[in-house]
Amino acid sequence: MNHQTVGDRAAHLSPEDLAALRENLHEQRLFRQDQLRQITAAPRAEDLRGRRSAAQAEVHVKLAASARMVLADVEAALGRMADGSYGSCHLCRRAIDRERLTIVPQARYCTRCQRVREAGR
User: What is the arithmetic mean of pLDDT over 12-28?
Assistant: First the structure.
């Protein structure tokens, strides 16, 4: 990874901030991968015993979809760190606040643009 590029694009983030955010993203990736393994393994065992209801199946499908979505967001954030675009809003290109990235390290949008996107839904 080119640390200089990351530093240039995310000048508001110190090297320590970036290291902590990267570690958080790696932990989230491991958690979501493990979560997906557990979700996909549990239904098979329940199916074999014939105890799985349609409602349980729907919950498993939704949990797996949510975990995949978050995992994709985490992978994308790690990719942005690698290519130097991490910390810049995808819409306005301004820096995403450090506090927001600390809470949601995979954030693609600054707070303002995120609100605009959510209001448009």
Answer: 94
